[in-house]
């Protein structure tokens, strides 16, 4: 289990602005931080994400004012943000505040500090990414053609919400969070980036703030708008959050390492899972990387279920072999 002293503090809260709170993925704390830091002269740049209708995907974009933040919930699409920042270093004005994957924090921080760019980095709890092709597979399983999609988003507009697809003919398709067939696609790992198979990170304690969903009974039962469970990892992060709270920008309550472990148990226990399953994971990774296997078992939801059945059998075999 992780060291409970890695984070300075544990909290649950939400932005006071109810519109942003509703439209954000869970509570809007991340959006609140970006908006707040834009009010300081040292932070003049951030990164937001826009849906590119032509290519049917989300793309990152540098922005220079809070009004350009695109509140679009979570993005379950693997994006090379490190490469994006590297390519656009010359366009960063002043300091930058951004949100990125746990595995991207150290690389982005090192890159920015190498070029003497002040930064505030927000990370989040990650259950493993899905490639863009995984989203395209999702459309296919729903019988939707990419060229008919005007916009989509994975989360936001209530909590826990889910995938929302808007077609050019005015049709709107809504699927609950992690319902089928998205859950099936995610669990299959057929569209999982290679680096995710052996990832042991629940979040990045090198970021200033880490965000998470509060998957606790009281929030699951009663919260329909959204709250953010978040970890404060640096003194800078602590100072910013205290300032925002004192100015009534956010409402927060103290949480704890124990509640974080309960709310994010599968992610907190990833290190143990990877250690116990490393031989199976190596085998699984090689199998799903086989082009013929991948093509056959991602063809239909039924085929994908067969793939999961085969992986369960192999998992049992490997566990017995290496006990």
UniProtKB/TrEMBL annotation:
This is Coenzyme F420 hydrogenase/dehydrogenase, beta subunit C-terminal domain. It holds the Pfam family FrhB_FdhB_C. It comes from Bacteroides xylanisolvens. It comes from the Bacteria. Residues 96-252 form the Coenzyme F420 hydrogenase/dehydrogenase beta subunit C-terminal domain. InterPro entries: FrhB_FdhB_C (IPR007525).
């Amino acid at each position: 289990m992780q060291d409970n002293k890695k984070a300075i503090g544990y909290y649950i809260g939400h932005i006071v602005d109810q519109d942003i709170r509703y439209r954000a993925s869970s509570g809007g704390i991340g959006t609140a931080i970006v908006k707040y830091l834009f009010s300081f002269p040292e932070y003049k740049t951030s990164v937001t994400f826009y849906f590119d209708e032509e290519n049917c995907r989300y793309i990152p974009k540098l922005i220079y004012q809070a009004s350009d933040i695109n509140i679009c919930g979570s993005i379950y699409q693997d994006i090379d943000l490190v490469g994006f920042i590297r390519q656009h270093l010359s366009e960063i004005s002043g300091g930058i505040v951004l949100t990125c994957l746990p595995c991207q924090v150290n690389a982005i921080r090192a890159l920015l500090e190498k070029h003497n760019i002040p930064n505030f980095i927000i990370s989040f709890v990650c259950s493993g990414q899905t490639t863009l092709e995984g989203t395209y597979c999702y459309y296919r399983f729903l019988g939707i053609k990419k060229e008919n999609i005007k916009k989509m988003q994975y989360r936001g507009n209530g909590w826990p919400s889910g995938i929302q697809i808007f077609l050019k003919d005015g049709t709107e398709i809504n699927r609950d969070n992690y319902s089928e067939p998205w859950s099936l696609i995610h669990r299959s790992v057929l569209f999982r980036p290679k680096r995710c198979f052996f990832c042991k990170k629940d979040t990045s304690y090198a970021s200033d703030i880490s965000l998470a969903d509060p998957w606790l009974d009281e929030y699951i039962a009663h919260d329909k708008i959204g709250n953010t469970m978040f970890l404060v990892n640096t003194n800078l992060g602590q100072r910013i959050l205290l300032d925002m709270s004192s100015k009534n920008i956010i409402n927060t309550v103290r949480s704890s390492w124990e509640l974080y472990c309960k709310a994010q148990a599968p992610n907190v226990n990833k290190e143990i899972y990877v250690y116990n399953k490393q031989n199976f994971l190596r085998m699984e990774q090689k199998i799903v990387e086989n082009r013929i296997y991948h093509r056959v078992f991602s063809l239909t939801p039924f085929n994908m279920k067969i793939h999961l059945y085969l992986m369960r059998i192999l998992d049992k075999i490997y566990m017995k072999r290496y006990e």
